[in-house]
Amino acid sequence: MGMQSTVPITVAFGDGIGPEIMEASLRILLAAGARLEVERIDIGERVYLKGSTAGIEPSAWDSLRRTKVFYKAPITTPQGGGFKSLNVTVRKTLGLFANVRPCMTYAPFVRTKHPTMDLVIVRENEEDLYAGIEHRQTDEVYQTLKLISRPGTEKIVRYAFEYARAHKRKKVACFTKDNIMKLTDGLFHKVFDEVATEYPDIENEHWIVDIGAAKLADTPEIFDVIVMPNLYGDILSDVAAQIAGSVGLAASANIGEHVAMFEAIHGSAPRRAGQDLANPSGLLLAGVMMMVHVGQPAVAEVVHNAWLKTIEDGVHTYDIFVEGASAQKVGTMGFAQAVIDRLGKTPMTLKPVAYARDGTAMQVPTPNPTRPARKETVGVDVFVHFRGSPDDLARQVKAVSDDGSGLNLIMITNRGVKVWPDGLPETFCTDHWRCRFQASGDGKAPTSHAVIARLLQRFADAEIDFIKTEHLCTFDGEPGYSLGQGQ
C-alpha cells in the first residue's frame, strides 16, 4: 500500500476487556501518526445472543472483504448452544493460513527464567484437528478428523522460511509427531524437508513435538522460528508467551493471500472488564505488526520503541507489576498515556527495534501444483458399533463376507489395537470396531466401489451396525493408509 495513503481497516472492539484495550491501542497508534480509516463492526457475544451461531453478521464480512485488514479485540463465545469459534470461522473463511506469534523476553523489567529468549512460532491456521469435523459414532466413542493437506502444509512451511529470511532469522525448526501419525504428521515433516532444500542460507531441524516442547520450556533460546501444525502451534505458542513473561504481552498476526487479522493472543477476561486494569500490550503489539503490514513501518517503529521504553521505565499494569522492581502501577488508559508520552524515545537497556523502510513486503507463498498419482482401491475399513467379544464379531462379519466377493476379512481392531485374529485377552475394548477387508493379504490386488457397496449391503441385510467406511487406496503403489499390527 502507498506510504502516504490513509489505510482503511476493520476494527472490532470485542467483549470483556476488549473495548478498553482497543481504545487504548488505537489512541497510541493515532498519536504516533498512523494513517488509518477505521470501519467499526460488531462481533462476538452480542451477535451470538442475537441468534448468529458464528458471532458475526453478514455486513461485517462486507467490511472485511473491502478493507482486507482486521484489527480485532478479544471476544466472548457463550457456552453451549452450538456456538462456533469466531476466530476459527474468520481464519478459515478468509483463508488466513498463517498464525505468526513472536515470543520474546523483556528482562530484567518483566520477570522470566529465560532472559535471552527471542523466537517466533508460525502455526498452520486452517486444518489439522481444527477442521472441526467431529462425530459421535457409538455409545462410547467420539471421533474428530485430523486433516493435513500437501498444499496447506507447503504454504505454511514456505511462509516460515520466507519469514525467517525477511526478518534475518537464522534457523527454522519443525515440530511434528510423525513417529506415531506417520501419514498426517509424516506429510508435514516430508514437505518441511523438501521446502528446506530451497533455503540453503537458513538452518533447519525437525523435532518430535513432545521432546521439542520440553526443550522449548527448558531452553527456548535454542530456537529461532518454529513451524507447526495447528494444534501443537496453538498450545505451544501460549506456553512460549507465558514463559517469556506473560501471555498478556503477546501479539499475533493471521496472514492470508487476501486478508490479514491482528489480535492479542489472550481472551476477553470478562471478570476484569470495565475496571481500567487490563494490559493493552498484546493488542498494541498486534497493532504494531499491522502497521508494518499496511506499509507504515515508521509508525510501527515509533510505537514499539515507546512501548519498550515504557516497560523499561517500570510503568506497568497489575499483571506484570512487581513490588520493589516496578516503578509505577497504572491502569489501561494510564499505560496508554505513558506510551504516548514516550513517543519518539528509545529504550536504553532493551534493544530498540528498527523496521525496514524499503517498501518491500513479504510475498505470501502459493503452493506448487500436486502431481496426480496412480490411485487404486485395494480394500475397505468398515467401522462397526458392536457389543461383544472380538471372536463374536468376527463370526458375524465373516458370515456375511465369505461369499466369494474377493474381499477378505484381514483383521479387527479396537481403538487402533488389533484384537482379531490372535488378540490378547488383556486388551480393553469399547463398542467401536474396525473391520479391515482386502482383496489379498498383501494389499496389492485392486477391488472396486461396486464390490465394496455389495459388501455393505450384506452388512445391512444382516443388521450389523456399520457407522462409517474408509477406502484403502494405494498411490503409485504405496499404501495410503496405516498398516495394522501383523500386516
Could you write a compact summary of the structure shown?
The protein has 487 residues and is of the alpha/beta class.
Determine Rg (CA atoms, Å): 26 Å
How many separate domains? 3
What's the overall geometry? elongated
What's the pLDDT, averaged over the residues? 92
SS element count, helices? 13
- Termini, distance in Å? 57 Å
Largest sheet: 10 strands, mixed
Q: What's the level 1 CATH class of the largest domain?
A: Alpha Beta
What is the helical fraction, as a range of percent? 25-40%
Content-based structural category: alpha/beta
Quaternary state of this entry equals single chain
Strand content: 15-25%
CATH topology of the largest domain: Isopropylmalate Dehydrogenase
Low-confidence stretches: none
- Determine the CATH superfamily of the largest domain: Isopropylmalate Dehydrogenase
Which tags fit this structure?
Isopropylmalate Dehydrogenase; elongated; 13 helices; Alpha-Beta Plaits; 10-stranded mixed beta sheet; 487 residues; 22% strand
Structural overview:
The chain is α/β, with parallel strands linked by helices. The chain has 3 domains: 1-93 and 245-357, Isopropylmalate Dehydrogenase, CATH 3.40.718.10; 113-233, Rossmann fold, CATH 3.40.50; 375-479, Alpha-Beta Plaits, CATH 3.30.70. Helices cover 32% and strands 22% of the residues. The protein has helices spanning 18-31, 45-49, 58-67, 86-93, 150-166, 184-196, 209-218, 230-244, 281-293, 297-312, 332-341, 390-401, 449-461, and strands at residues 7-12, 36-41, 69-72, 98-104, 118-124, 134-136, 142-144, 171-176, 203-208, 225-228, 251-255, 260-264, 315-316, 328-329, 375-385, 408-414, 417-420, 432-438, 466-475, 478-479. The strands form 4 sheets. It has a 10-stranded mixed beta sheet with strand order 2-1-3-12-11-4-5-10-8-9, sandwiched between helices. A 6-stranded antiparallel beta sheet has the order 17-16-18-15-19-20, with helices on one face. It has a two-stranded antiparallel ribbon with strand order 6-7. α7 packs parallel to α8. The longest helix has 17 residues, at 150-166. It is elongated, with a radius of gyration of 26 Å.
